[in-house]
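Ticket #339: bound-state structure for manganese (II) ion.
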Amino acid sequence: MQDRPHADVVRDNLTSIQAHILQEERRHPGASGDFSMIISAISLAGKAIAAKVRRANLEDVLGAFGTTNVQGEGQQKLDVIANEIIMKCLGDRVSVALLASEEDEEPTILRRGGEGGKYCVLFDPLDGSSNIDCAMPVGTIFTVLRNDPTIKGSVETVCQAGRDQVAAGYVLYGSATIMVLTTGSGVDMFVLDHSVGSFLLVRRGVRIPKSAKTYSVNEANALQFPAGYRRFLDEAKASGYSSRYIGSMVADVHRTLLAGGLFMYPPTTSKPDGKIRMLYEANPLAFIIEQAGGMAYSGLKRTLDLKPAELHQRIPVAMGSPEQVDGLLASLREHGEQA
Ligand code: AHG
Ligand code: MN
Ligand code: MN
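RESOLUTION: The complex was predicted; output attached.
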């Protein structure tokens, strides 16, 4: 449970996400409004994707698209649809220089250098899409990076360490459509009110519980985990932990953010770097968890300190409440994990 339950719940005025971002920008003299245009495009994309997800069992949008993405994974029809919606919503925002998607081989260059693009937006259009046919929660994860016009290549431009993110967030299409956002000064949460068509602020300055006895991991892989992870899980079982795992990272991390505990996707013998994509999944969610007072590690290193070597790089992740992440790190050290 939280230290002060619901201390962050917004009970005063109705605030839309657009108004919230404009208010935030006012605190930064000289802000041009470019950034709020990006967040408003993402919220529009979130609403359009939410509508598709809700009607997925009624329209011919379920199942495999018949292609594989750059990572060799089968694409669902909704992966492709969500990708197109985001591209359309962000494509004409003049402050966006580059868009990079988990589904595309290369970043899409919209405008460079003198053309005014200040930011790059990276996203996983539909996280957890293998769950979509069963009406399980899925989501869109995004991060906003600065565009350095002096860097020539588009891949080099977006291969930035996670600590340099300008903003990150996700839209979760669950029993409610939720948007969670950080711009580096805490985490705010919005709920889509379908009756008015807006994401409304419901929690300001969300804090992750300091500790909760829950772990979220694909435990079917446990025999392939390094010893430190296995021992942590053994000890957790012996001390009364509960397990929750959906298989949509965005949903598992959202649950961890609100209820506490540990989410992890460790290295396995068959996937030594784990499965989670650094730029589209690990970094934005690590940024949010840290901004909420939690911790995010890849092995013994802070996830946000790592510099990506390639666009679609994967890394092991463990993130959540400080007490659980600390406990895992102690177990990794004790059982020979190298820093
Ligand atoms: P995506 O649907 O974008 O490819 O991501 C799925 C990812 C992540 O969301 C989730 O945590 C993980 O795959 C689940 O993997 P396992 O099925 O191996 O548990
Ligand atoms: Mn994903
Ligand atoms: Mn995806």
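RESOLUTION NOTES: The chain has two domains: 17-203, 214-333.
TICKET STATUS: resolved
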